[in-house]
Amino acid sequence: MKINPLIAVGLILALTAYVTLSESDDIVVSEKAEINGLLGKLREKAQGERFWERQLSLVNSRIHVEENFPSKMADVKKRLNNILEESRNSMEQFYNENPKLKRSESQKLVESLRRQADEIERGERNAIIEEYRLKRIEHLKSTKKAIMKVLDGNNP
Length: 156
Description:
There is one protein chain. The chain is an all-alpha fold. The protein has one domain (5-151). Helices cover 79% and strands 0% of the residues. The protein is built from 4 helices and no strands. Helix 2 crosses helix 3 (49-97). The chain is elongated and about 85 Å long.
């Protein structure tokens, strides 16, 4: 099967335009300023400094997200607690209006113990998430330093 030279040239031009003009939404640079993947390497060759500036922008954006995660989670937790409080108040009002359906002391104890167990599990899970988040920030900041060196002309 013979390929028409005009089609081959057209495909090469289209690929070149794509690599030159497109941007990645992923961080493809390592902490040592090594570029991962063929497409990332092609983009760096075609785009030069613009590629590195885009990578820096992505790293800065991800650092911002990671650093602000605790405050976002605090907001979510506050809203959730408000909803839970409203729910408890509604249930209490319901039980006051329907005393025959009121929970027994043993049921209240079981619910309390479940809440305590849930809180312990949540604390363990949050500790793991926080450890990962801090490592991710450290990794992103190292990657940022490597990118800055490349942009400053001090390729590592």
